[in-house]
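Class, look over these C-alpha cells:
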Amino acid sequence: MRIKSVLLTLSALVLGTGAAHASGNLVSNGSFEATTNGNNKQLSSSATGAADRTTLEGWTSSNGRDGGYNFVLDSSIVTTWDSAIWLRGENNGFTASHNGGNIFASDPDYHPGTLSQTINGLEVGGSYKLTFEYALAQQTGFEGANNDNYWQVVFGNTTLNSSLLSIADGGFSGWKTATMTFTATSASQALSFLAKNAAPGAPPFLLLDSVSLTSAVPEPASWGMMAGGVFLLAFLRRRAYRA
C-alpha cells in the first residue's frame, strides 16, 4: 500500500508539471482578434501608420517598406463586397476557420509581408510544437487556377514549409491543420510566417488562424523527478521483499 501511494504521488507531480508547461500557448494573439485600429483592413508596419490601416497586437508585419500586402479580415463577411479583400465563395464550400472571427490573409504573388512575433521564455534545447490552421482562397474578380501555395515558417534559425495547397479557378482548399516541431536555440527567438508559392496564379490568398506554440516534452526537472521516482520505487520494493 505504501509503495502504491508513493508511486501515485510521484506520477501526479510529474504529469502535473508537464501538463502545466505544455498547456500554455506561448504565442500572443494567435487568433488575431486583438488589433490596434479595428479589423477588415490592410496591415501597417507600425501602430502609427495610416488611418485606414491597422496592426495585430503582439505581431509585426513588414516587407521592408511597409506592412506588405497583408490583411486582417473578418471571416463573417470575407466572401462579400464589404470585405477589404473579397474572396470567392460561390459554390466552393468556403467556411470560416475553427475559431471564426478574424483571420490573417496574404497574397504570395503581390508584395507579401512577413508576419512575425518574438517568443520569450524558451528553454534552450527544448522541443516546441507549433500548430496553426491555414487555407487557400481566390480574390473575386480574377480567374485562373492557383497551384503550390504554402506558408514558409521560420522559428529561430530553422525554416519549415507547410504542405502545398492548390485550387482550381474560384476554388477553396478547405482549412488544414499544420503541426511542426522546433528546437529552441536561445531563450528568445522570432517566429514568422511568409506566404509563398511555386507557381504564380490569379490572386491567391493564403489564410492563417489559430497559431499556437507549446512545449512538446516535459521540462528536464520533470524527467529528473520521474527518474527519482523510479529509483525510489525500486528501493522500496527491495526493502519490502527483504522484510
